[in-house]
Amino acid sequence: MTSGGGTLNNIVLFDGECNFCDRSVHFIIKRDKKALYKFASIQSSAGQNIIKKYGVPTNVDSLVVVETERFYLKSTAALKICKNLDGVWKLFYSLLIVPRPLRDFIYEFIARNRYKWFGKKDKCMVPSAEIRKRFL
C-alpha cells in the first residue's frame, strides 16, 4: 500500500467471520514465501476503504483480490492468487481458461455452504508478529 491514497497491489480481502476463509488466508500465507500478499477482512475499516476505492460492490460475498488497480472476485480471485503461490498451486492458474460462469458456479456452491460446513468465528485470530505485518 502506498501513502497518500496511492495504488494497492496484491491485497486479499476475505470474510473475517468465516472459518474456511480464515484457513484459506493461512493457506496462502504458508505458500506465499515472497510475502507478496497483504490481507484485510472485508468487515474491517481497511477492507471497507479498499472496497470504496476500487468500486467493489458493497454487498460482495466473495474473496476479493486487488492487483494493479483492478479487483477480481470469486474464482478469478482465487486463481489469481494461485499464480503467485509456491509449489504445484501455480498450475491452478491455468484453470482461468475454464469459462468463468462454470468456475463461479463451483465457487458459489462452496461459498453458500461455507458457514454450514466450516462454521463462523466468534472472535478474530491473533496472528504472530511476523504474520501481523501482512494485515492492513
From TrEMBL:
InterPro entries: DCC1-like, DCC_oxidoreductase. It holds the Pfam family DCC1-like. GO terms for molecular function: protein-disulfide reductase activity. This is Thiol-disulfide oxidoreductase. It comes from Anaerobacillus arseniciselenatis.
